[in-house]
Specification:
69 residues; mainly alpha
């Protein structure tokens, strides 16, 4: 399963590189600008998760690690 995920990530990277080469070789400034706008839109979308911690989680972790206060 891990190998499959690595292959998917590599394929995505190679696809992006190929697209970048095609866009830049086109020489069309609007196509190039559009490509970079798409990349900027992806960068601008952080994944946010609500921070939730179980009650007593820190104490259980400290106990597990043998931390004495």
């Amino acid at each position: 399963m891990l190998d499959r995920n690595i292959s998917r990530i590599r394929a995505d990277e190679e696809q992006r590189h190929a697209r970048l080469l095609l866009v830049t070789q086109s020489g069309d400034q609007e196509t190039i600008n559009g490509y970079f706008r798409e990349l900027e839109a992806e960068i601008d979308k952080p994944i946010r998760q609500e921070a939730r911690m179980e009650k007593g989680a820190i104490d259980r972790l400290k106990a597990h690690l043998g931390v004495i206060e």
